[in-house]
Amino acid sequence: MAVCVAVIAKENYPLYIRSIPTENELKFHYMVHTSLDVVDEKISAMGKALVDQRELYLGLLYPTEDYKVYGYVTNSKVKFVMVVDSSNTALRDNEIRSMFRKLHNSYTDVMCNPFYNPGDRIQSRAFDSMVTSMMIQVC
Amino acid sequence: MDAPEEPLPPVIYTMENKPIVTCAGDQNLFTSIYPTLSQQLPREPMEWRRSYGRAPKMIHLESNFVQFKEELLPKEGNKALLTFPFLHIYWTECCDTEVYKATVKDDLTKWQNVLKAHSSVDWLIVVVENDAKKKNKTNILPRTSIVDKIRNDFCNKQSDRCVVLSDPLKDSSRTQESWNAFLTKLRTSLLMSFTKNLGRFEDDMRTLREKRTEPGWSFCDYFMVQEELAFVFEMLQQFEDALVQYDELDALFSQYVVNFGAGDGANWLTFFCQPVKSWDGLVLRKPIDMEKRELIQKQEATVLDLRSYLFSRQCTLLLFLQRPWEVAQRALELLHSCVQELKLLEVSVPPGALDCWVFLSCLEVLQRIEGCCDRAQIDSNIAHTVGLWSYATEKLKSLGYLCGLVSEKGPNSEDLNRIVDLLAGLGAERPETANTAQSPYKKLKEALSSVEAFEKHYLDLSHAAIEMHTSIGRTRSARLVGKDLAEFYMRKKSPQKAEIYLQGALKNYLAEGWALPITHTRKQLAECQKHLGQTENYLQTSSLLASDHHVTEEERKHFCQEILSFASRQTDSPGHKIVLPLHCFAQLRDLHFTPSNAVVHVGGVLSVDITMCSQMPVPVHVEQIAINVHFSIEKNNYRKTAEWLTKHKTSNGIINFPTETSPCPASQNNLPALELYEMFERSPSDNSLNTTGIICKNAHMLLRRQESCASLETPSGVALEGGAHVLKCNDVTLEPGANRLMFRTQAKEPGTYTLRQLCVSVGPVRFVLPHLYPLVQYDVYSQEPQLRVEPLADSLLAGIPQKVKFTVTTGHYTVKNGDSLQLSNAEAMLILCHAENRAVIYSNTREKASDVLLRVQSSDKVTSISLPAAPAYHMIEFELEVLSLPSAPVTGGESSMLGMTEPHRKHKDTQKAGHCMATTDHKVSIDCPWSIYSTVIALTFSLPFRTTHSLLSAGTRKYIQVCVQNLSELDFQLSDGNLVDPGSADLQLVPLNAKSPQHTHSKQSVFFVWELKWAREPPPSLHCQFSVGFAPASEGQLSIPLKPYTYEFQVENFFTLYNVRAEILPPSGTEHCRTGSLCSLEVSITRLSGLLEVDKDEALSESDEYFSTKLMYEVVDNSSNWAVCGKSSGVISMPVVAQATHRVHMEVMPLFAGYLPLPDVRLFKYLPHHSAHSSQLDADSWIENDSLSVDKHVDDQLDSSSIKSRGSVHSASSSEHKGLPMPRLQALPPGQVFNSSMGVQVLVIPSKDDHVLEVSVT
Predict the structure, then answer these.
(1) Domain B1058-1166+1225-1230+1239-1244 -> CATH class
(2) CATH number of B944-1052
(3) Disulfide: which of B164, B208, B426, B567 matches B762 by Cβ 3.0-4.6 Å?
């Protein structure tokens, strides 16, 4: 499903980034990093909107020939970025949303861990396996 | 479509397309009305109510009025809408019934029949009434007008199908009115026709669409049908609706492609899967690309053709709708999806063809948008177009790489063939852009034509894209394009141009902590720097890469080897050093001092252990590791002493360095932790605290501008510190991972040493850590030799041997053999020399070093202690016994001194509540070998005893009692108490004491008593010397004989002169005294001796060899047992003759019953006023402070005696001292008066009548 999932800290450094092993990892790093431009743009545009009405899902950030990059931002400005293969046309917006929601829930679990230091890289196995499930899930 | 299209071919600009309205009947009439009609029709909007719940719309109607022909009417099955006549109007001006009947009616019938034949129901008959004509024609039937006739003949139920237009060319209100009515009717009819016909068309279309699953269904046919609808909406200027039609077609096609991908292929789709032969990009400059449309119609279009055509139509409509930015956005989506669709449909595309198509399309879209917007609009909407720009850049880049235009050598023959093929696919340039200089077609053709042209175009595009990204704040995207550019430059072998882009990108990635991009960019940068020959930068990047865990092991080794091979190479200038930051080479983990408190004395050895983690993948041989040390002399001397430092440095000597968390965002990385310290500022004069506070020592680091931190990758410009103080460690091989390094140093100058800069030397390469953080310091101190002498116990006791501890702190002085302490002996203090005196030598850390025998040599003036040889900064400890002699040897000279000290000491005792021991200080001056000055040490000894004496009398027999009070904590054994009067030999002192030694416990007293006996007349004063041997009770045998404790005192006037006897006799006739009844007190004072030396004073009066003295007696009852009645005192003249007796009779009354002691009888000497003493006294003091003066007087008198009698004098003197001059009273010393009735008691019986007893005694 997703070919790359990234969690990016408020300060824009990666907390977690994983891509499917078959592809060049570096490419996705560049892609996710570049997509932060659009995330920033969308967040600053959203900043004017009321906080409680704010939509966490940012939608399609950065379409490329081969991939679609979607974004999601938590209230604490932690960003989730998901890269999806463009050929995967069956994937609808709603599914992307629900995937993000799943990701957010799992991230919240990570944050709830008293042994996790906010700002550290995420090394939780539960989070990792959840991401794995999102990546291998075939539609 | 065939025949009917010929007069009105659909190749028309759709904006000029208007719904067709046919006109039949009087053509001349219509021609005359047409200008007004075409002008008036669109003037007012009309509400168009729509079917299927679509929102009603206000619409301005326009029409294309054409002459009615039967051919215009669509045949059965023809679905063309554009050419569909929506309304048929018959125009007539006929006002003559005859004419009507003759021609018009026939004409109308024919027209109606044609319409009916084509089942067209949208028609209208317009009768134009003309007043002018009416006047000419007189035979008008007023009853039935032509209108009525027509209505009657043709509009059998729809009378409104016939409209009258009155005087259309006149300017009157009636004309206006009829025009309005007509136009409304016309519009309504048109809209009704639209609704009806379009509704029917849509239904047909839907039916057609529903058949799409049927085998013969063709998308192209359906496309044409729905596009017809779109055309009509466009014709009606309903662009939104038109766009919807195209979007539906778009979605339908997309869905088919998706289904195809999922394996559900439709037959018709295979037509589209033909290999792509033409890739000439989108054509957006024409409203309708008829070529493509024809291809679609003929089912010969490829996917690209269909997409191009669809998008060109959508683009046109969006531009009509003033939504150019949506065009840009949709274009990007389209281009992406087209590429995907071609992949999905497995359409064979020659390599590069798609890139050409995308490139051309991007530029076409951009130019199209630019063509319809002004500059300001474009600039403010860069966000929408920038995607197309970078996409075009990307595509041009890949074309360049594909065709060998990026290589140094230029394209080879294979590349050239490819270029030719690609250019062929573009076809010829389209006529509409042929004259445009910068058309996409020309650009591409030019770019592919030569290496130089490609470079120019690629650079133009890249720079434009970077600029746009930057201008809207998309720095990351700009960096990415920049990196591509850098790659391009590297290919073109111009690394100097690439460097800036790589540096920029790297800075960005570093700032945000993206490890993989950092590594990748660094690798590129390393290559670039290598080409540029930036040795220093290259080595730094190499070291960073060699320590990077994201790099493969081989690559790391390669980069490490690069550094090492550079280091081993001989450089031309041997002094040249390459300074690199340490953090990419190795990291410090911890530091450990030995000794752990990091305090060392001058000359001592300090070792520093550092754990350094090498980041290199292979072992690295390092010539030297040096730590520069900053030396500062502490101003505060006290800080340098060992005691202070050991007290204040409590750390275990391990300093941990914070581990650098590798790729960390800039915000955390740049700011070092606060280094806060307490600050105390003391005034230089008295060391009192002036100010205190907290200071931040690294404020300069925290407050500096952030930009200066940006130079992470460039050599940090660290200056190598040169200094006199360096800790070194030579020839070390640093294994990957943790290494322990040991630095040893011998402390030289005292002061504080701060470890500052760490430098690792590998050949000419220096890895430098500019500042060790946290602060690492060690202290070197120098200490003067010191001698300390202190008692072992709380206080030293005089008289017995006491242990005193000597501590020699050698400090910087080395004690040699033969060094000795010379103690000049104090006179009253002995230093006891034992054979076994051991000295212990301790090292600086209180570890016992050795144990030596101490040699003490004593002469009468000097005691010399030979110190054992001890190195510097050691301590020699030994104990000596000293003895303070409690009193000096009995010699004449000494006794006087002691006699003087005694009262002084007594005075001290009385002041100090009697509990403190008297002390004596002994000063010993010691000559130390390290100093020319003598050290004077005062030892304070406390006397363990306090001694008092008293004289006791029994008639004429005399006793001396000595009380020895032990004040110390020790128990003592007292023996051989002895009292002698060395002055008078005829006096005998008979001891009444036990012979055995007396044990006196702490805080207890022992009494000694002697009886005085004399043969001849005793001397007036007795000089006694008491001595007693003493030894601590706990200790067994003492090594030396102790001097006895001595006490000297004088006893004066001890001989009894008067005997006072008192007797109380009951009243006569009674056996016992009774309370309340007067008794007689008989006092007899008897002189016991003749004239003696002591009597010779002023009171003595002589007459005829007969001596008498004046005495005053006084009866006082202090316990208020008795009431003295009458005179209680009196002066008597006493003859100085033995056995001379004076009797006094007094009346006293007992106040209580029981055995009552007798009242006191006191005797005073009554001295006449002309004495020498009185003249000395001040008259005022007599009056005011009489009692005090008497006291003083008595004190003067009894100065040398220990006996004091006070108090009783008061009453006597107070009664006598009125008036001047007056006689004085002097108490007789108690030794001279013996009260023989002391202790006698008289039985007093209570009186029978108790109630009488009411005596108040004040």
Answers:
(1) mainly beta
(2) 2.60.40.10
(3) B567
